[in-house]
Automatic annotation (TrEMBL):
Superkingdom of source: Eukaryota
Keywords: Glycoprotein, Glycosyltransferase, Golgi apparatus, Signal-anchor, Transferase, Transmembrane
Family matches, as CDD domains: Fut1_Fut2_like
Record organism: Cordylochernes scorpioides
Name of the protein: L-Fucosyltransferase
Annotated membrane topology: Single-pass type II membrane protein
Pfam families (UniProt xref): Glyco_transf_11 (PF01531)
Membership in a protein family: Belongs to the glycosyltransferase 11 family.
Amino acid sequence: MVKGKEDNVHLDRLEPAYLLKESYPEDDDRGQQPGIQQDLQPSKSRTQKVHFEEPQRTCSVIKEDFLNLSIHCNHGRLGNQMESLAALLGLAQLNQRLPLAQDCNLRHLEPYFTIDVPRIPDLKPPPLFKYHHQIGTFLTDSDKNISEKKFYISGNPFPLSFSFYHHIRSTIRSQFTFKKHIVEYAKNFIEAIRKEVEVASTIIGIHVRGTDYGNYLKSKSRKARIVDMKYFDKAMNHFRTRYASTSRLYFVLVCDDMDFCREMFKDRKVGYAPSAPHGSYHMALLTMCDHIILSYGSFGYWAAYLSYGETVYFKDYLPPDSVVTHNQLLDYYKYLPEWIGISTTPMGYWDD
């Protein structure tokens, strides 16, 4: 048994906010408006089968007169598309509706996941507001009792909060099962790490959002704190304290700007994920790590949500009384209760 050793690896109730404008999201690629192909009217889909796995039971719902439910499109990248589909599935289950996913959502997901959800062409949002159900930042009582007249989910275009879908987590994990070639990429890398030594090892994935998110936070508050090595050192020490006495530790970085990460971690013993054709490969790699350290952004969040280990996240990076904190980034609606928040904010920092 090797104690305390690490190795390099050389092988990524505050009022809801109704965001009617698609402002800069957590994972935004500034894409074009999806093409509008058809209108959707409330309809009843006869003898449709919808399979939901709930926390304590599995049920297949086969129901006559099953009302449709769809969700609007967003312009974000992988993590944002995942949250839209997850919210649709969670709300459909709560309201016993048939979820219909638009092409503008699924075309960003189906190349990477084995998704099994009814697909429809891109929709023109209903012109009459009475057909819309607006969601906010987190699940509310009204979201659990959507009127049968309403069949189009609008409002917050980036419903990251787990409150929308955590009640069907098994279903979410099933829908977001990575395709075989992506799994093979991640498994090969993890197996290569484990072959480095002959003793038991604990692999900790670190997701670093290094490109644009800092600018986004600064646009929300001039006092926003950007993730730095003080946080990562603290997070890494958390795992050293918990596991280094019984296991060899490996820290593996997944980063959206490798030059930035190599400079930031140049004096630390870490490995770097190999290049990949798409971010989904790195997400799959993170999910296969024993534990995860997050910075911020929905990409890392989803890697942690789909995994089974311990998650540490960066907290207190925005003023606690700011509008964006209250309406969009409430930790207790965004991060699972069992996840561990680590703050590096000096005492009194927000008082200045």
